[in-house]
Amino acid sequence: MQLNKQLMLISNLTIIKENEAILKGTPTWDMLRNMSPEELERNLASMQLDAQNFSENLNQMLGITDQTLSVGANFEEDEELAEIMRTIHAVKEGELEPETAAEKVSGEEKEKKRELDVEEV
After folding, report:
1. What whole-number distance in Å separates Cα of residue 121 and Cα of residue 4?
2. At residue 81, does pLDDT exceed 80?
3. Which pTM was predicted?
4. How far is CA 33 from CA 27, 29, 74, 94, in A?
5. Residue 72 has what pLDDT?
6. Rounded to 5 degrees, what are φ and ψ at 111?
7. Which of 10, 43, 108, 117 makes an SS bond possible with 103, Cβ 3.0 to 4.6 Å?
8. What's the pLDDT at 121?
9. CA quadruple 16, 20, 24, 25: dihedral sign
10. 83: phi > 0 → left, psi -120 to 50 → alpha, else beta; which?
């Protein structure tokens, strides 16, 4: 493992040396010039670990969301949710006024109907 790290460091330094003329005109060059080889290696290793952690977290989050989406597709249709979606569609189409839709979704309309039914009995 130590040999692999040394080889990576030499490879990175070779790339830097090959691009030295371009790099000398950038602020990165000053930072690299003032950095010890050990510090450079620590920073490169840290950057690699950060990238690995990010990749692992991303894969984990994708897995969770994929599971959620696949499970969500298998849920039985909720009648209340279906009614809310029909109400939203009716408002969008201009078939229902927003105030009426709000009463319908909040259940106020059902409550009024129950009160009327009780008064009639």
Report:
1. 87
2. no
3. 0.32
4. 10, 6, 59, 68
5. 53
6. -65, -40
7. 108
8. 57
9. negative
10. alpha
